[in-house]
Amino acid sequence: MNQDEWWREAVLYQIYPRSFADSDGDGVGDLSGITDRLDYLAALGADAIWLSPFYPSPLADFGYDVSDFVAVDPAFGTLDDFDELLRQAHARGIRVIVDLIMNHTSVEHPWFAESRSSLTNPKRDWYIWASPGAGGGPPNNWLSAFERCGPAWSHDEATGQCYLHSFTPGQPDLNWRNPEVRAAMRKVWHFWLDRGVDGFRVDVAHRLMKDAELRDNIPELAHARRHVTHPLGRQRHLDLPETLDVLRDLRRTLDAYPGTFALGEVPISDDRRLAEYFGGDGMHTAFHIAFWEQPWRAAAFRETVDRLAGLARPGALPTYALATHDISRTVTRYGGGARPRVAATMMLTLRGIPCVYYGEEIGMADAPPPVEQRLDVDGRDGTRVPMQWDETGLGFTRGTPWLPPGDDRREANVARQMADPGSLLGLYRRLISLRHASAALRRGDQRSLETGEDVFAYVRSCPGERLLIALNFASRATSVDLAGLPGLPGDGRLELSTDADRRTGTPVDLRPLTLAADEGVIVRIGDHP
Ligand code: NOJ
């Protein structure tokens, strides 16, 4: 492998800094807390960590409303703490990628303070301003992504105009048609790249450009808060072709820092469009959004994985996550027991870049706080609760945690699962170490097999190695006929089963292959036929 393309074979780990580890006892996780836990991440096998925002923010959208792009919020520490985290991570061979929020700033960002101060301020055009519509309402029919925020426009008393905000009113959208905005954001890229970060996760990369004339969305699309497709036309406030130019510009900058990469968050429901965003001359990879939206059905996962793989550019790799700070956790969506084990086996064996959200490896469930303690505008607190290092909660903080910890922490905690190789954490560690050791898993081809409704099965192969992965999504034992697989031997050797009692190395009969209820297996089936 070309070392600059390390990310192609990496296992990523997402950290939500408020909730990972609190080193100073104020109840909020911080950068030094993350540094203290790097050995845990190294032992898990994380090749890179993605840090959700740690920049100064008034928290209208919990860090995704940034008031200074080139500083650390005091709640998380200092720039020196960041440098130390980077140094210590690199010393362990762990790369660090940071969140790049380019679509909007906070209302408290000095750029916006200037912009809103007068119609003639030199930064007026850095944001998207328009006169109110008929009757003093919003200038057009665009909606904020968040239901609770209503229209995507807020009226500003100072100048009598409205500003655009695709998210909360605390997050005014930047005007990427203005070259000064591009130049200012380029400085932000260089700031972090010069500090030594290994790349960016690009927040809502598909939203950067808006219709230059701010035309209404067509009535059929007027209700849509997120990306949707419609035969009559496209949305005018997101996924504009010009967006890709900005991402190409970012790519040119990254290319000057060998070994860096961009991972896009592109929540687009149309895989054909999503495929345009990565693997070419723009971002290197993007999340496979539909992956975490699937119901618990083998056929649904097979179709969604194969569809994007069929549309993506040759060699392009999507990034697979089961949960994020926006998306409910695996245990909450699919149930506990064996399913999270099957899901982990899938994510960590697919052709793509796996990204583990903190706490997924111990099977944390969402823990929505009582109504009076809810903080997030879009109801996402439950998926952001403190990392469960131990049963007491003291592993996260010696103070009062900013969100109440989950009730499941007696079982779902690191200390307990570390001591049990059969735990979910034990399985994650084995899966990641197998991925690291296997060229077929790291960089092999992938071919799905026709195995019906209950089983998602695929072969990962490269010269010299061939692995069969078979995942039973049904809660009953199932046999699958693999006769269509060319050169299939009569049996293989078990590499790993989600059932911790089945021993590695035991022969596995393949004609047919029988899986227990909710079981996933990785079977070594020899070289290419
Ligand atoms: C996507 C982020 O993941 C989410 O948390 C945030 O609310 C929006 N972008 C706006 O930045």
Fold and architecture overview:
One of its GO terms (molecular function) is hydrolase activity. Pfam families: Alpha-amylase. This is Alpha-amylase family glycosyl hydrolase. Belongs to the glycosyl hydrolase 13 family. Residues 14-398 form the Glycosyl hydrolase family 13 catalytic domain. There is one protein chain. With 529 residues, the chain is of the alpha/beta class. The chain folds into three domains: 3-103 and 179-435, Alpha-Beta Barrel (TIM Barrel); 110-164, Oligo-1,6-glucosidase, Domain 2 (Oligo-1,6-glucosidase, domain 2); 445-524, Golgi alpha-mannosidase II (Immunoglobulin-like). Helix content is 23%, strand content 16%. It is built from 13 helices and 19 strands. The strands form four sheets. Strands 9-8-7-3-2-1-11-10 form an eight-stranded parallel beta sheet, covered by helices on one side. Strands 12-13-14-19-16-17 form a six-stranded antiparallel beta sheet. The chain has a three-stranded antiparallel beta sheet with strand order 4-6-5, with no helix packed on it. The model has no long low-confidence stretch (mean pLDDT 97). 1-deoxynojirimycin binds at residues 61, 64, 101, 167, 203-204, 265, 325-326.
